[in-house]
Every structure is written in C-alpha cells, then in structure tokens.
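Customer escalation, tier 2.

The customer says the design service returned an amino acid string that "doesn't look like it belongs to this structure." They asked us to rerun it and document both sides in this ticket. The original structure tokens are below, unchanged.
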C-alpha cells in the first residue's frame, strides 16, 4: 500500500483496513476496543515532583486519549471491514461474469486490477492491494504464498503490445523490494524483445490468452468457450527441487538430450536444479 504525500493518518488507516480481509479488520476492531477500553480505565499516576511529572506525563496522556481511541480506532476498522466485504463481493461477481477477452478489455483499469486480484486469490495466494489511484512504485498487487513474495503489475491494454521498457522497470522494482519474482498481467500482448528479456528471469508475462485461461480455470461456473487452447503458463511452473526458486523452461543445447526441453532453475548458474518435462 503506497502512502501518498497528502494522506492523513486517518486516510492511511482507512486504506489499510480496506485492503485487509473483512474478517481481519473486524478482529482488529474488536481487539483494539478491548485494549483501549482497558487502558482508559487505569488510574492516572499522581504527580509529586518535577521528576515524576516528566515520567508520568506520557503515561497519563495515553490513558486519557485511550478513552477517545477506544471508539475511533474500532470505527475505522469496522468501516474498513465493510468496504473490504463490499469489494470482495464485487471482485467475485466481476470474475464470474467474464466470458471473453473482449469483456475483460471493456473493464476500467480499477476493475481489471480487482479481476486479477480475485483470480490469484482463488489460486491460493494471499493478495495485498497496493491502493489504486496514486503512485504505486510499479506495484499493483503483492502476492504471498509458501513464504514467497511476488509483485504484480496490471495493464488493461487493448491493442498496444507491452514493450521491454515496462518489463525492465518491473524487474528493477522486484529487485528493489527483494521479491522472489514478478508478474506482468496484460489483456494484450508483449513484444518479442520483452519476451526475450523475461525468458531466463523470474518474470511471468501473462498475455490475453493466458489471462483467459487463468480466469476461466477459477470461475465458479466457467463461461469461456471450451475451445480455448490449453496454454501452459508460468502459474503451473514447478519450483526448483534444490532451492525452491521459480523454474524456467529451457532447451538443451548439448549432450545426449540436445533439442529437448526441460525445467531449469531461474537462479542458474548459482543453482543447477533441473526437472524433466
């Protein structure tokens, strides 16, 4: 979640509460009320001299303000829980009604991000939204699963192919935030240069065809045509049996298996783990 320059603390807390699941925000609201309610009932420390006054000042202020915070803090997170529940319902409905790449391309960019977030959530990822509408540092979503972190950028582009510049920028952001890999999701396509750059790196390029498959495989009642080709995406990529990093499909250039494809560790040559296809 990116904090914008003019955001108040209230704005930040509301955005945080709305980005969490409604159950998590509701639990925070309950526990914060209990904690602040308990603190507000504590007796104020008596001040006998200047030394004790300085010691007790902050404690007494905290006790006093807890009487106010016991209502304000829970209200913020209850409001966030409501927003999160509404957004969750909207995301589920949005994903389940898609029937073609054309219907996906008619979505607004905000709806497109919600669609992608819901698809990954149904794939078993914990999804954190980075907060739409402001500078996001190249990150729209953060995915967490099995102790690994992935960053996602979404582009709802209809005709223009994504160039290598955007992929390089996302890869740079991935390195900066120390994520395990990065995912670029587009409703269009990618240039050959962009695909070449991503080929041997922990970068997943999801184009319109792979996006159809991603959405179609997690819909409650699949609405896409059954003639959609069974495209193997990097979502199905195995992890390295040695270091658990993402693996990349490679082609043997020497030895007895010249020309045969295999899965190779994305961190090669540091790790030389392989899996046969």
């Amino acid at each position: 979640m990116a904090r914008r320059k003019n955001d108040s603390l209230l704005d930040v807390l509301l955005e945080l509460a709305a980005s969490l699941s409604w159950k998590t925000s509701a639990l925070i609201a309950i526990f914060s009320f209990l904690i602040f309610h308990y603190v507000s009932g504590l007796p104020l420390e008596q001040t006998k001299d200047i030394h004790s006054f300085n010691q007790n000042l902050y404690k007494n202020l905290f006790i006093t303000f807890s009487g106010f915070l016991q209502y304000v803090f829970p209200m913020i997170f209850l409001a966030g829980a409501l927003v999160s529940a509404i957004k969750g319902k909207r995301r589920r409905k949005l994903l389940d009604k898609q029937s073609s790449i054309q219907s996906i391309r008619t979505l607004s960019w905000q709806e497109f991000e919600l669609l992608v977030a819901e698809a990954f959530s149904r794939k078993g990822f914990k999804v954190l939204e980075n907060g739409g509408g402001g500078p996001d540092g190249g990150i729209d979503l953060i995915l967490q699963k099995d102790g690994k972190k992935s960053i996602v950028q979404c582009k709802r582009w209809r005709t223009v192919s994504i160039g290598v510049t955007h992929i390089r920028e996302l890869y740079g952001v991935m390195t900066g935030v120390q994520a395990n890999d990065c995912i670029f999701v587009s409703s269009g396509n990618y240039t050959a240069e962009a695909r070449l750059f991503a080929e041997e790196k922990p970068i997943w390029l999801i184009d319109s065809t792979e996006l159809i498959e991603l959405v179609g495989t997690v819909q409650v009642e699949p609405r896409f045509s059954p003639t959609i080709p069974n495209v193997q995406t990097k979502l199905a990529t195995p992890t390295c049996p040695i270091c658990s990093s993402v693996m990349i499909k490679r082609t043997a250039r020497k030895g007895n298996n010249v020309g045969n494809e295999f899965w190779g560790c994305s961190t090669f040559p540091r790790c030389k783990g392989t899996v046969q296809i």
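Tier 2 assessment: The sequence is consistent with the input. The CA atoms of residues 243 and 270 lie 10 Å apart. Residues 237-277 form one domain. Sent an explanation to the customer and offered a walkthrough call.
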